Amino acid sequence: MELQPLDFEKPIFELQRRLQDLKAHSDEHDVDLDSAVGAIEAKLRQTRREIYGNLTAWQRVQIARHVQRPFALDYIERCFTNWTELHGDRRFADDKAMPSGLAMLGTQRCVVITHQKGRNTKENVMRNFGCAHPEGYRKALRLMRLGEKFGMPVISLIDTPGAFPGIGSEERHISEAIAVNLREMMRLRVPIIAAVVGEGGSGGALGIGVADRVLILENAYYSVISPEACSAILWRDRRHAAEAADALKLTAQDLLKLEVVDEVVHEPEGGAHRDYDSVVTNMGNALRRSLQRICDIPIEELLTKRYEKFRRLGSFAEAKPASASARS
Known about the structure:
328 residues, alpha/beta, 8-stranded mixed sheet, 8 strands, 14% strand, globular
């Protein structure tokens, strides 16, 4: 699969092309170009370090949205075994944007809830670009209750720009479906792990994101609003998306500092789409480690910790300024 470069990656791809051409010319004409090849390789390493070592929030958003990035079903195929997809919310329909079911993570049977995008127009239409309808969240809740009934932990793989805001979605009460999920996940009597593997957009992500442990991939993002929508509201112009992305503190690194997430899972240099095996191995290890950590906690204690975890979000204490007498 030929990688598609993002705008900020073009200097790297140009150097790679020049290096390839130089090596091909050397082989074809039997010319010693080792010094020139070495110089370009050194330049390529330096350029990669400079670009990938100093990614902006907006560049990480672009990587999180990369069409070749592994999606939820790629993780299910590689991290889990015995995957059995279950369909329908028993009220309206089956939401293709949220394939969910039962699977084994190591030796543990789990309920797995996911968002799924498509790689081409046909798949994206079927998956609704990863934007779930109310029936998707109701299906997720049905399966989570099934997990609770049989003592199976719940694992959510989050990758959505947000819940679908169309007329039909509103008519079937998308906000109510998400709100019910938030309430029920808070008191679900089984361990819950959520992992943001790409985009974590607004209530669409949070609707399956109330968990005891929240993981996030290094170049994924999790935010109350997309940078473009934030830019359109604040500046009345979507062209300020990069500035909005920085202000929103939506990167994995910022979220870890703010204690919104519990662990950042490492990606290969340049993003998860460059090495599926590496990132899947890292995610699988993180999921198993987190599951082992929380499964040993008594359920009442786990519910208390889960409640306190989310009550702490957004609560900050400002230091009082020193009094005039203290300053003098």
